[in-house]
Amino acid sequence: MYSCLPYYHPNKNNISDLYKTGIAWTNSLSFDKVTDKASIRFSYTVLTANDVVKDWNERTRHSFNLRTQSKLTDRLTADVNASYTYDAMDNRGYRNSSSRNPLFILGNLPRDTSVEELIPWKDGNGKPFNLNGGFTNPYWLLYELPNHDTKHWFMGNITLNYRILNYLNFRLRIATDLQTARGWEYTNMYSQFDTDGQFKEFSQMAQNNNIEAMLNFNKRFKKDWNLTASMGYSWQHRRNERTNLTVGTTSQPDMPSLANNGAILTGNDSYDGKEKVSVFAMANVGYKDMVYLDGTVRNDWSSTLSPGNNSYFYWSTGLSFILTQAFEIPKEILTFGKLRGSVATVGNDAPFDSLYDGLNLANTYLGMPYYMTDNTRKNPNLKPEQTTSYEVGADFRFWNNRISVDFTYYWKSTTDQIMRASVSSASGYRERFVNAGEIQNRGAELTASITPVKTKNFEWTTIFNWSKNNSKIVSLTPGVDRYQVRAAGADGCISYVEVGKPYGQMYGTDWQRDAAGNVIADSSGKPLEQKDVYIGHVEPDFLGGWKNQFRYKGFDFSFLFDFKKGGLFYSETAYKGNNMGNSIKSLEGRDEYFFSKWVLDESDQERAGYLRPTDVPFPADNLANRVPYMDGARPKGVYFPGRVFEASIEGIGGHPVVNDWVKPDVMFCHISGRNAKMNTYDATYVKLREVALGYTFPNLMVKKLGLEKLRIYANGNNLFTIDSMGIFDPEMTAGIKGYPIQRTLTFGVNVTF
Questions:
Q1: What contacts 727, CB < 8 A, 6 or more positions away?
Q2: What DSSP assignment string belongs to 714-750?
Q3: Are 727 and 578 in contact (CB under 8 A)?
Q4: Residue 160 above 90 pLDDT?
Q5: pTM to 2 decimals?
Q6: Residue 637 domain-assigned?
Q7: What is the domain extent for residue 644?
Q8: Are 519 and 660 in contact (CB under 8 A)?
Q9: Residue that wins the pLDDT comparison between 14 and 190
Q10: Cα distances (Å, whole numbers) of residue 555 to 457, 549, 698
Q11: Residue 572: pLDDT above 50?
Q12: Count of domains forming the chain
């Protein structure tokens, strides 16, 4: 007996062919030499790596490092560090919900799509084979949108130390950090979003220079007193420049070049920078190695603030008391004990280009450029932000350091925050920079370490850490109780800061409900939405970790768990999966609906479990006149439980709670786009963060090989996660807009000659 239905082969993973295991190779070589006058060390490292997506993010990086330490005279020493890195990347992957990102496209593909059917991705004329629904073939995105960039990165510093007296020292440090990058990106002709093709070239330079001079004093007085003090000056200068050249239309396919121009070449430049000058002093006074009092003062002058407000002063002071120095306590009971407390203020300047309005090149009209102001009104009266913090804590070591406990409690308040506040559209701006608002943070941190077993050949240490932070928005701009910090998602999810509540309040759409909590639906059966519903906040209840370290002769083994309790996680991946019918949740009722519609040829009312006695169009007929369909017990689609119909519908206001049928496409397209709460998850997780295993060969064996040290090791990171979602990484905060935390395996050999 043969079935009339074809044999069904489910696509268990129809997109896996686009992925592979990413591999990175790192090889290092180093040389060093030490004499009584100087030391020198040189190292070279080469990295080759590729992505988990085929032909994406193909990287080669060469790194050179040099460090020398020289004793120039009896009083003068010099320390020189220099490093150079060359980094080349082919086909750097697009991120976010870009139409050029193949991962974004894959998230929207129907689950019955076979990736094999997407090859070849273009015809003989070079035009793409695209997908229905406006989606570009992901292979076209991978192979017809090439890009390349290279980066040169130089860091260097020289430190001179001159010993004026035995207790007085002068130090001068000069450092630079210079990065230059060049690259291009090409959109081949016939691309769906740029049918004429496009070629862009860019060059970028970022430089950071620092000079610091310090005078250091360290002397003991009358045996019991010790003074350490410093005073100094620092200068920092940072600048970033970028130039872009664009050919908006290319003439020939497969020719990534500015010469392949079918339109006028356009370009633009951008610049930002900052200069900061600081003077500072610090001192620490100790009495009998048991009481320490320290303090700092600092004044900064910043170029990103106006001349009248560009100077800001801040300070700190702290007191600590060593119990084990003050009292005779057996080391076996309390090896070390310290109580500490501090208060500090910190200043912060404004972002670049926040003071004065300017004009930006907007576009061209009839070949002539025109300019527009920014959407944000600048503010020349901005003042620096200021943070005040208080901290108390204790550090204890017991049983000859076999047990250690460190505890800290802190309170911090930030005022005069520099933020963007909404303004009336009549002003010609959307927002402006202001000093406003206060945010408070209170929290505690705890670290405990125990070594239960310690012998000549075996040692076991377990370490536990825990932290908790509670934030509170005390105030915002005058007359404003809530400020948006994240734009609304496709389903209306918005993040705010709100007076009186923790940072990161989430609001969004949810269903309208009656007093009993039942969902209210319209006449078509679709749930009615309500906007601006409070969902929760992103701040976790607490964070923590648990690490264990084992040593047996030459073997070492360790593993680390970390965890987070509470906080919300919004997943755009869940929204996209539900909306496009690609999630497991969206499978509900799909087969029943198919069988009812295409096999039994039932109407919507029959699938709903009712047979209309008249031909009067719904909803004019009264639900009370309906009679159950003979097969009403059989599910026909998705049942949305506990709904009541809105009272405005004639004859339905008193209708009891029903478990009414909804079409699968209505349920998981209409609904997913109108309910942010269903795409929000508890971000609680437990993660096996790291496992490490190594072996250090015995010295006798190593010496026979002409080596100083030989060690082999293997590390695994992010090996598994336990969470309430099961399919999304709860550490991701952007859903489909980024990679999940990647699992990595590392194998290596350390050889010292």
A1: none
A2: EEEEEEEEEESSSSS-TT-SSGGGSPPPPPEEEEEEE
A3: no
A4: yes
A5: 0.80
A6: yes
A7: 589-673
A8: no
A9: 190
A10: 10, 11, 11
A11: yes
A12: 1
